[in-house]
Specification:
Layout lengths: L1 H10 L4 H11 L5 H23 L3 H6 L5 H4 L5 H9 L5 H20 L7 H4 L11 H17 L3 H26 L4 H20 E5 L6 E5 L1
Antiparallel strand pairs: 1-2
Keywords: Cell membrane, Chloride, Chloride channel, Ion channel, Ion transport, Membrane, Transmembrane, Transmembrane helix, Transport
Membrane topology: Multi-pass membrane protein
Function: Forms chloride channels.
Length: 220
């Protein structure tokens, strides 16, 4: 069961290449507006992935301690950063989970003597806001403008929006797997069965009776 859950999590890792290759079939013109829209959508998709993984992966959070660091990486503009700062989609359960996770991470790294940015505690409230969905909504708005102005093929447009929905679902599933860990019962089963298996292996013996060619099967 734990291996199955691990593999399901691996399958939920999003790959922007499939979505972006489909984008080129929907917005295929070479004019300045089309190129700008393609580049912006690609940036938003990567930004959404980075924002989501930032709350799931310690390495990504160390790479981007603050949301403002995405500006230096070229994934976010100043205006978009201000919009993200105003987003206030909060959930009490998520706020508690994120806060406890980051505080535990700080405690573990501090005990190891690893350098940890002091801004982690200052900007801890950043984990209380769901920002990773906003860039995907911006992608939908751009595609809506493209549909109104240039009338792309309906089937291609619908396929892209369906793929975008699956992309969002994959990120949401990663959050669900991160919130709900493997039940403790599986750990208890592994811990309890291991000693039994070892005891059965070494406890199953054959006793040799002196001066006889027979053996007696015994259990210790």
């Amino acid at each position: 069961m734990p291996v199955f859950l691990w593999w399901r999590q691996f399958e939920c890792l999003s790959w922007p290449e499939d979505l972006l290759s489909m984008l080129c079939t929907v917005i295929h013109a070479n004019d300045e507006t089309s190129q700008r829209r393609r580049h912006t959508i690609a940036r938003y998709i990567n930004l959404s992935t980075a924002l989501a993984w930032r709350d799931l992966s310690k390495k990504i959070r160390l790479r981007f301690p603050n949301v403002s660091n995405f500006i230096d990486a070229g994934l976010l503009t100043e205006k978009e950063f201000e919009i993200l700062e105003k987003i206030n989609v909060r959930s009490s359960s998520m706020r508690r989970i994120f806060r406890n996770r980051i505080l535990k991470l700080i405690e573990i790294e501090s005990s190891k003597g690893s350098p940890f940015p002091s801004s982690f505690r200052t900007h801890l409230d950043e984990c209380e806001t769901i920002r990773w969905m906003a860039p995907l909504h911006w992608v939908q708005q751009i595609m809506r403008k493209e549909e109104e102005e240039k009338k792309p093929t309906t089937s291609l447009y619908n396929n892209f929006m369906t793929e975008l929905k699956l992309f969002r679902q994959s990120l949401r599933k990663l959050f669900c797997y991160d919130w709900v860990c493997v039940p403790l019962v599986y750990t208890q089963v592994c811990v309890s069965l291991s000693p039994i298996f070892i005891h059965s292996k070494y406890g199953y013996k054959f006793a040799i009776v002196p001066d006889k060619k027979t053996t007696i099967q015994t259990f210790l």
